[in-house]
UniProtKB/TrEMBL annotation:
It comes from Streptomyces sedi. The keyword RNA-binding does not apply. Pfam families: Aldolase. Belongs to the KHG/KDPG aldolase family. InterPro entries: Aldlse_KDPG_KHG, Aldolase_TIM. Pathway: Carbohydrate acid metabolism. One of its GO terms (molecular function) is lyase activity. NCBIfam families: eda. Homotrimer. This is Bifunctional 4-hydroxy-2-oxoglutarate aldolase/2-dehydro-3-deoxy-phosphogluconate aldolase. Keywords: Carbohydrate metabolism, Lyase.
Length: 210
């Protein structure tokens, strides 16, 4: 898949991390049915590899599906085998290195300018600015756009609807959203509430793109 093209077109990466694998799969299904087609399933969730495999079987071979919280080479290999076609890391290291060896596009976590340079040198497709909210939110992303005007930056961490709009206006190629979007849906919570939040985020990203 072309991860960068998908980020630019969709502008929203949903992050599913749940304690209930069945609920996590239902959450993925709900997101996709609402039009949120770029989904990451975090390996820190319960039975995440099984959730990835089940989601891949349902969505088919062409749907973009990622694995997140990829820390090690073993994580990268297992996620790829389960059906993930892009990987997301919280930082630099063996997970990113193995993703590149496997030929998988990677959204690699970085925070400081030095880490951003290192991530690009290591072959990251795009840069996940994490935890973005802890560093000042949209103001920090806007500051990073100075030395890195052409790099695809994706803020993650505490991205509620208001922050998402501000990040996109500040030049983020996309935003990664976990709990502000998912709520408790991946733990067995209400799917109709998830569908409503998904619709609100999609409207926001469409407005930011117009």
């Amino acid at each position: 898949m072309n991860l960068l093209e998908s980020l630019r077109a969709r502008r929203l990466l949903a992050i599913v991390r749940g304690s209930d694998p069945d609920a996590s799969l239902r959450a993925v299904r709900t997101l996709v049915s609402q039009g949120v087609s770029l989904v990451e399933i975090s390996l820190s969730g319960r039975d995440a590899l099984e959730v990835i495999a089940a989601a891949r079987a349902e969505l088919g071979p062409d749907a973009p599906l990622g694995a997140g919280t990829v820390l090690t080479a073993e994580d990268a290999t297992a996620a790829h085998a389960a059906g993930a076609d892009f990987l997301v890391t919280p930082g630099l290291g063996a997970g990113l290195d193995e993703a590149r060896r496997l030929g998988l596009p990677t959204l690699a976590g970085a925070l400081t300018p030095s880490e951003i340079i290192a991530a690009r040198s290591a072959g990251a497709t795009a840069i996940k600015i994490f935890p973005a909210d802890a560093m000042g939110g949209p103001r920090y992303l806007r500051a990073l756009r100075g030395p890195f005007p052409d790099l695809p930056l994706v803020p993650v961490g505490g991205v509620d609807a208001e922050a998402a709009r501000a990040y996109l206006e500040a030049g983020a190629v996309a935003v990664g959203v976990g709990s502000p979007l998912l709520g408790d849906a991946a733990d067995g919570g209400a799917l109709d509430s998830l569908a409503e939040r998904a619709g609100a985020y999609l409207r926001l990203t469409e407005e930011a793109s117009s």
